[in-house]
Design goal:
This protein is α/β, with parallel strands linked by helices. Strand 9 and strand 10 form a beta hairpin. Helix 4 packs across helix 5.
Length: 259
């Protein structure tokens, strides 16, 4: 298994934040993590990213995550938190270039990858702009290009690599949300999986191969969108009575009118 989580527990002081989570990912995919506010989604993603260490519970490519050095881990996974603070007036292309800090990639290759990754998020026209002058959505697209470049500078291999992102689509308009998830889908061809905390249920249903539902610190469901997103789940986990219909050849679930 390329990602294995076994009996993951995490608490702060006397408060249990994650309880007995078991989940595995064996082939490249786009994984959506959904759940109500305070359910533990961001904490779970931080554990998966290696920002919170939990002894022996998480393995990436058959290796315990705590055994990776920071440089080794940076070659396997790239992470984007909910908020990324940068207060220096760098050109946007130099922000993307931060991903090459520990890289042996030539300057020419770096420039090609910066161009390629900015293009993937429709931000090429921002390359020479002062990062601090950008809108929230524009800054997010630059940060997405940065984490793309972090992994794309390494050649695809049998070892799966991971993009781990906490609400990456939240600052984006609809066009750029669709573009982001189309790129994540294409990344599967590079043996690269995307694990995404997301609040837009319809967006998750349209693009994700699997949905992982976190509620009160527990993984309560892990399956394809049409098996997870049901009227009963929405009531049980989100406490909303809402209509769930299905559309297209893949029976993609769509939530719509409150009942």
């Amino acid at each position: 298994m390329s990602l294995s989580v076994s009996q993951l527990n995490y608490s702060v002081s006397s408060k249990q934040l994650l309880t007995d989570i078991n989940v595995a990912l064996t082939k490249p995919g786009v994984i959506g993590i959904i759940g109500p506010n305070g359910a533990g989604k961001s904490t779970f993603l931080k554990c998966l990213s290696g920002f919170i260490l939990t002894q022996g519970a998480i393995e990436l490519n058959q290796r315990k995550i705590e055994s990776y050095s920071p440089a080794e881990l940076a070659m396997v996974r790239a992470a984007l938190p909910q908020e990324s603070h940068l207060t220096f007036p760098f050109p946007a292309k130099d922000v993307v270039g931060m991903s090459f800090a520990l890289s042996a990639v030539s300057k020419r290759q770096q420039n090609e990858l910066i161009h390629q990754c900015l293009e993937k998020v429709a931000a090429l026209e921002l390359a020479d702009r002062n990062f601090l002058s950008l809108s929230g959505g524009e800054k997010q697209r630059v940060h997405l290009a940065r984490i793309f470049a972090q992994l794309m500078q390494h050649q695809p291999s049998d070892a799966m690599r991971f993009l781990m992102m906490d609400e990456p689509s939240a600052p984006l308009d609809m066009k750029h949300q669709f573009q982001l998830f189309n790129e994540l889908t294409q990344f599967k061809n590079l043996n690269l999986s995307s694990i995404v905390v997301i609040h837009d249920i319809n967006l998750a249903a349209s693009y994700c191969d699997e949905i992982w539902v976190i509620d009160s610190g527990k993984l309560v469901s892990q399956a394809r969108p049409r098996e997870v997103i049901t009227q009963s789940m929405m009531k049980q986990v989100f406490d909303v009575n809402i209509e769930v219909s299905h559309h297209g050849n893949h029976a993609t679930p769509v939530i719509s009118n409150p009942i």
